[in-house]
């Protein structure tokens, strides 16, 4: 990161994160900083360790070594690539993941997501796109300080993707820090302010989005961008 | 014996509302449902804990519980008998040859089933929900309570399996209940007695009644499952 960026307030800092499974090093001494109020993209090939790193930053996985300094758990939220949906109605699911949020506010979120007619439907009977919207508004309704999104628009159609991106922009404008993964270069260019590039469990490059896409500093990054 | 005779006897007994038969059916249902309820009250939280947490002694607990799955009912009956007979450590309770003793025997019999099946159900569910639970920072009790609620339809099936096992049991309840007329005689012990007395048609008729009772319980549970579906569960 550049010097002026280092002076920005960091909402999350990770130092020397290592993670292994079955003797394989999956994350190798990853250190990074996330600026408060930024939208940061984690990019990399399949199996590079993006989801694992996101899970470590959110505190879902026990680190082999290293540390993560992040906001308290109740100020963080994560939306998984395959949404985890409860066996209850759509409204019941929202109530469960958003404890303390008023019913009228939840109804308003469902209306904004265009799923207000599905309130009483079994949440798991919703379409994939509707489930992803439900998971996203479930995270946003609590107004977290930092939101982790694992490929939130994978398998979504154009309209659903636009909704998710609009919601991300809105949350960002309201002060939520966003950390997300994607394989969609144009999405990262549209939304991203910072980019972290992972390869084989190592953090290869960390740069502002404009620099990353126009003048990548590492050979592996250039090679990756040629494939995107 | 004519093939249709047992059916005719069964229908006649039911149609006439035979007081002794009704009393036997009532006691059978009371004993078995109490045993199932007790075993679920103990077994479901245990199954959830075994599924959701790793702790010292977990594996031995699972092995012991699974071993009891294969325990012959007569051995369970004998163990309970030794415990509650006058010379036993719980003899002071004076419950030998009472419905209470039969409830305890059936509870011990179906408890391993409720633990093993609920553990299996909770393990699958916990694997699916664990990241969300962790992300939401849920405490242990909330996690277990949520798992039990989310598995409600599966748990109904487990309750049915336990009920089927309990109400069809004969060896253990015979030992601790004594098959005393108007006191501890249930459907299975009545069938055993009628068979030993050569009243095969009557025994078969009781068997048919037992099946009818099981049918009614299953229909009721199916209705309950449907209402759970309306409650938002993909059963």
Structure description:
Chain A has 228 residues and is of the alpha/beta class. Chain A has helices spanning 3-6, 50-58, 90-97, 103-112, 128-140, 158-173, 185-191, 209-214, 219-227; strands spanning 10-21, 24-35, 39-43, 65-69, 76-79, 146-150, 177-181, 194-199, 202-208. In chain A, α3 (90-97) packs parallel to α5 (128-140) and α5 (128-140) runs parallel beside α6 (158-173). The longest helix of chain A has 16 residues, at 158-173. The model of chain A is unreliable at 1-7 (pLDDT under 50). Chain B has one domain (31-198): MetI-like fold (Orthogonal Bundle), CATH 1.10.3720.10. Chain B starts with a helix and ends in a 5-residue tail after the last helix. The model of chain B has no long low-confidence stretch (mean pLDDT 90). Chain A binds chain B through residues 55, 58-60, 73-74, 76-78, 80, 84, 86-90, 92, 96-97, 120-125, and chain B through 128-129, 131-132, 134-137, 146, 150, 153, 229, 231-234.
Give the arrangement of secondary structure elements.
The complex is a heterodimer of chains A (228) and B (235).
Chain A (H helix, E strand, L loop, with lengths): L2 H4 L3 E12 L2 E12 L3 E5 L6 H9 L6 E5 L6 E4 L10 H8 L5 H10 L15 H13 L5 E5 L7 H16 L3 E5 L3 H7 L2 E6 L2 E7 H6 L4 H9 L1
Parallel strand pairs in A: 3-7, 3-8, 5-6, 6-7
Antiparallel strand pairs in A: 1-2, 1-4, 8-9
Helix pairs in contact in A: 3-5, 5-6
Chain B lengths: L4 H12 L2 H34 L5 H12 L3 H12 L14 H38 L3 H11 L1 H16 L3 H7 L9 H10 L3 H31 L5
What is this entry, summarized?
The complex is a heterodimer of chains A (228) and B (235). Chain A has 228 residues and is an alpha/beta fold.
